[in-house]
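User: Here's a protein and a ligand (NAP). What would the complex look like?
Assistant: Let me lay out the input and then the predicted complex.
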Amino acid sequence: MGLDVGVIGVGMIGQEHIRRLDGGPGGSRVVAVADADADRAAAVAGQLPDAKALPTGEELIASDAVDAVVVTSWGPTHEPYVLAAVAAGKPVFCEKPLATTEEACRRIVDAEVAAGRRLVQVGFNRRYDPAHRALKQALDGGAIGAPLLVHCAHRNASVPPHYTRDMSIADTAVHEIDELRWLLGREIAAVQVLTPRKSSRGGELQDPLLVLFEMSDGVLVDVEVSVNVHYGYEIRCEVSGETGTVELADPAPVTIRREGAVAGLVPGDWRERFALSYDVELREWAGTAAAAQPPQGPGAWDGYVAQVVSDAALRSLHSGGRVPVELPPRPDLYASPTS
Ligand code: NAP
């Protein structure tokens, strides 16, 4: 049987996800949308064969027509929608961040634990990117021995005017926070944010940042976060191990050699770089939701831990120094350390 989905927040990524879910594999379709901008909701619903625009996210979650919910509104609005979906017993895919404070994320974890079943998946899409999956497979297979150091870069061509200094951590580096826990199978024990010379293109932003993570087994990680690089969108990750190194390959499909130079296209933005990851992510989520199984992807606990680490990094950004990460015991509902 197919999955009838309601989508709350139909801006940029909401429309991307709708394109994948409506008429998607397994017969999923979008039957309802809601947005703070009612005209936008109506326009998006008007382009879909089976969708209605509903006045509020709450009405969408309560609707009998909706089997499962996708939350792609702005981060600070996520918590009440995810809590309402859990209370209604409906699977919910929530874009990152799960919520914007540790306390809000904890309320979601507590609600799921009280309900006694996992209903929440968080949109940490790196776990679905074929290149990141190949990197993890190489590490797990022992291709380079024990990992010792990791070097990452997260570079955006530009960011919108509403982007604030803290968003370099809470909205951007949060992807590396989840990626590192998943890739290395360890928790993050401490974080320190260093502020190099500022880019003249960054305005009020502190851009770039260098974020240093200490994993619980002593692996050290450096992440460059740059959000005004102009030349394109680039994600890098290289792991240095006891017997070799493994890194993400250049994502350009071809390399051009001409006029004495070598060139490969750099993706313009996250939509281009991670298109395949979103395809796989939503297909797998819709599959488990339709089968009434718990989500296999990153869950509420992962969203909570990411927020705890993100808050620690923000404390380091604001006050300087190394900030240890303290995690409470993981509830039994979340079987493995990173899911
Ligand atoms: P966006 O283009 O601004 O879209 C958000 C939409 O939600 C807008 O239409 C907005 O309306 C609407 N909205 C705001 N408050 C709402 C509320 N209370 N109820 C219902 N709708 C509401 O933002 P976006 O770039 O799509 O990002 C949305 C979320 O996805 C964010 O959490 C972001 O971090 C995440 N994201 C994830 C990835 C990824 O790679 N995983 C990539 C991009 C974004 P107004 O414009 O009128 O406020």
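Summary: The chain has a mean pLDDT of 96.
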